[in-house]
Amino acid sequence: MLDVKVIRQNFPIYEHNKDLVYLDTGASSLKPKAVIDQVDHYYSNLGVNVHRGVYGLSYEATDLYEEARTTVAKFINANFDEVVFTRGTTASLNMVAQSYLSVLKEGDEIITSELEHHSSMLPWLNVSKKTNAKLNYVKLNDEGRITVEAFKDVLTTNTKVVALTYVSNVMGYITPIEEIIKLAHEVGAVVIVDAAQAAPHMPINVKSLDCDYLAFSGHKILGPTGIGVLYGKKHLLDQMEPSEYGGDMVDFVVKDNAKWKDTPYKFEAGTPIISGAIGLSSAIKYLMSIGFEAIEAHTKELHRYTLEKLKDIKGIEVYNSKSDTGIITFNIIGVHPHDAASIFDKNKVCIRAGHHCAQLITKWLGQIATLRATLYIYNNYEDCDRFIDSVKETIDFFNQF
Ligand code: PMP
């Protein structure tokens, strides 16, 4: 197990919120001091633009910004010029989908699933409506998982795009994405991987996955909000049109034409998210100093411990007891999740209530909303116990009526 006492010393939020039980990392992670300090360093010591200034401070800021790209590239085993900084997973996935508006046509097919976050399926619903390409959904198995077999059932020679999540933000399942990518490539389709929930929990290797595009957000891996990553294979990014036009993305401009910079810069129009990228770099370094093996062992143990205790409680329904990551999605029977969450909130236990921006899987579960607790590196057994106490208190409270 990780030494949570030591880890919490790195997270100032615990200093300011003594009783905090934070179980909403699925929505956004807490931020370590190293990240906050690095963002502060940029604003306090540099605070200038990148790629433009012909003076020392700007060179230094540019170095930090581009070093961040190197850190991200190493983190996912990509090449430097395959890493585009964006506003987050949502922006990355939309960018890719937009670029297929001029590529797809009637007769083409797109595959997605009911397990997707809205960011992964809505951009393709839009593309499907506008191009008349057919949107197909992988049939989930009884547990709610995407399986290779079910994927084969919807894959056809007309499939041009596959947009799937690597880890579900509701069920915590890991998609067998590597095999799916192989099959998709056999029919010439590209695969876009939503790695927003994978990046905090497991190593990502875009080369061994052989995915065509992959997206994740900084704020879910201990980094700042407002920064994310789009990975794309170089030849695909080269073919892709920018979705925004402006400063810094262009080499030459004449009145009736312009020549874009090479990737990744042609996708980063305007002043980029400098502090975000620099902060993300620190977050990745912090995460790597802990290591995914230790992260996985820690969250799995807390997950096992919590599920064991939940098993003994009558009046709850856990929807993903076989989750591959530390995500527990459940309901307290007869209690609306928002009512339940308010009792958790009173006890300073932060969990998520709602449809988690994934209405399709919530409907698939036969629910209008669920409660979700995510376990991560700064959680300990005591957090799990206080979570369990809140579950019991909620049941007792609502059973009085
Ligand atoms: N995909 C998944 C699986 C997610 O969990 C999230 C965030 N909840 C997103 C996409 C969107 O990420 P962001 O809001 O950072 O753009």
From TrEMBL:
SUPFAM superfamilies: PLP-dependent transferases (SSF53383)
PROSITE patterns linked to this entry: AA_TRANSFER_CLASS_5 (PS00595)
Biological-process GO terms, alphabetical: cysteine metabolic process
Annotated Pfam families: Aminotran_5
Keywords: Pyridoxal phosphate, Transferase
InterPro entries: Aminotrans_V_dom, Aminotrans_V_PyrdxlP_BS, Cys_dSase_SufS, Cysteine_dSase, PyrdxlP-dep_Trfase, PyrdxlP-dep_Trfase_major, PyrdxlP-dep_Trfase_small
A Gene Ontology molecular function term of the record: pyridoxal phosphate binding
EC number in record: 2.8.1.7
Aminotransferase class V domain ranges (all copies): 21-387
Catalytic reaction annotation: (sulfur carrier)-H + L-cysteine = (sulfur carrier)-SH + L-alanine
EC category: transferase
Gene3D superfamilies (alphabetical): Aspartate Aminotransferase, domain 1 (3.90.1150.10), Type I PLP-dependent aspartate aminotransferase-like (Major domain) (3.40.640.10)
Domain of life per record: Bacteria
UniProt cofactor(s): pyridoxal 5'-phosphate
Presence of keyword Transferase: yes
Similarity comment text for this entry: Belongs to the class-V pyridoxal-phosphate-dependent aminotransferase family. Csd subfamily.
Annotated function: Catalyzes the removal of elemental sulfur and selenium atoms from L-cysteine, L-cystine, L-selenocysteine, and L-selenocystine to produce L-alanine.
UniProt protein name: Cysteine desulfurase
Native species: Acholeplasma brassicae
Source species taxonomy: Bacteria, Bacillati, Mycoplasmatota, Mollicutes, Acholeplasmatales
